[in-house]
């Protein structure tokens, strides 16, 4: 089985920051407050990418629903005109 690989540049950057925090805290090279700030910022990036992905995945479905609504509206206007 192929291992999962992150390809989104923003997520790669967040992953690198998280790994840096882990290494820094393990060696004692990073203070708790600095680590917390980096993890918090990384979490924000991950959430933003997740929201964008949800929107991109929903767009085709939304476009199809809008097309059906426009079609139904057009039909109703034609029926009223007759």
Describe this structure in words.
84% of the residues lie in helices and 0% in strands. The protein is mainly α and 82 residues long. The chain has one domain (9-81). The longest helix has 50 residues, at 32-81. The mean pLDDT is 93.
Number of domains: 1
Q: How far apart lie the N and C ends?
A: 62 Å
Strand count, sense and barrel status of the largest sheet are:
none
Average pLDDT across residues? 93
Question: In terms of structural class, how would the helical and strand content be classed?
Answer: mainly alpha
Topology diagram in text:
Blueprint (H helix, E strand, L loop, with lengths): L8 H19 L4 H50 L1
Describe the structure using short key phrases.
single chain, 82 residues, mainly alpha, 2 helices, elongated
Concise overview:
With 82 residues, the chain is mainly alpha-helical. It has one domain (9-81). Helix content is 84%, strand content 0%.
